[in-house]
Predict the structure.
Amino acid sequence: MAILNIVKDGDEILRKKSKPVDKIDEKLLILLDDMKETMEKAGGVGLAAVQIGKLKQVIVIDTGEDQLELINPKLLSAKGEQEDLEGCLSCPGKWGIRKRPLKVEVETLTREGKTVRKKAEGFLAKAICHEMDHLQGKLFYDEDCRILSPEEMKEYE
Ligand code: ZN
């Protein structure tokens, strides 16, 4: 396993769309494992492949409660609304109050190549939406987000 370098906001790759994975092979499994290790080391709850410079539709999430690997994920439904503090490993020091759906259902490939559906709500739903936005070249503060001022940030510390 390896710790990968996380691309920071300002790098144009973060604004590009990721491409679907066409083959689940040894290389992809290594990528998933490296991404997990990188996310863990950085103290994040999610990481999309574009954040380590690969335009592939691959995501890892670990909320502490749920561990997920998403390969070529598709959003099937989104319901309700939640508003919560959000940040991004690619945007250090930037935090905002972001609106997200409360519940989502996604279809994804597993590392075994099976297509499965996954329902999520609350924090996990937020994390899935955040990471799936990365696959579209979007960052969390692009829409429905109020960026916190440094004074406001102190209240969250
Ligand atoms: Zn992010």
Observations:
- The chain has one domain: 12-156.
- Residues 88-90, 130, 134 surround zinc ion (CB under 6 Å).
- The first helix runs from residue 26 to 42.
